[in-house]
Amino acid sequence: MLSPQMIDKLNAQINLEIASSHLYLQMSSWCAHQALEGCATFLEQHADEELMHMRRLLSYLHETGALAVLGAVEAPPTSFPSLTAMFEQVYAHEKLITAKINDLVHLANTEPDYATLQFLQWYVAEQHQEEFLFKSILDKINLIGVTGQGLFFIDRELAALATSKQPANLPQG
Ligand code: OFO
After folding, report:
1. pTM listed for this prediction
2. What distances in angstroms separate CA 129 from CA 75, 91, 95, 168, one per listed residue?
3. Domain interval for residue 79
4. CATH of the domain at 94
5. What is the pLDDT of residues 24-36, one digit of tens each?
6. Cβ < 6 A, ligand 1 pocket
């Protein structure tokens, strides 16, 4: 059985995952509007992944007999100064998610709540991968540049990343 504080924090995380999906879907739409189809597809897939992160938390709350509470989702920005600035925002957002997961882990460890501690390990590993992924995208953008044909090549890289995404990220069972 989860503590009231843990239920509140897991619910906050559920709502944050929904907000993340919303943000990435809006970014995807902005990219499509800029004719950056590869980036748009990649971000659309990532928005789906965030919903999967949310569902995993939702299931955990249900398994423990707790109620999931969904709140209002804040509207994300609809335009971005540049592709670089947009991916910098994604990277910063993922670092925020990591901090929130770390807070949850800290609470589970101090309560202690070993079942939740174990459950959260998947998110710890996932956040490591997500930060690595977006840092490497930013590195590519900085390497290739976004002037001239640079944008075309970056969009192609993101299209390749989107098609190579493995269903390994999906929850098991
Ligand atoms: Fe992109 O992160 Fe969810 O958890």
Report:
1. 0.93
2. 26, 12, 11, 12
3. 4-164
4. 1.20.1260.10
5. 999 999 999 999 9
6. 17, 20, 50, 53, 94, 97, 123, 126, 130
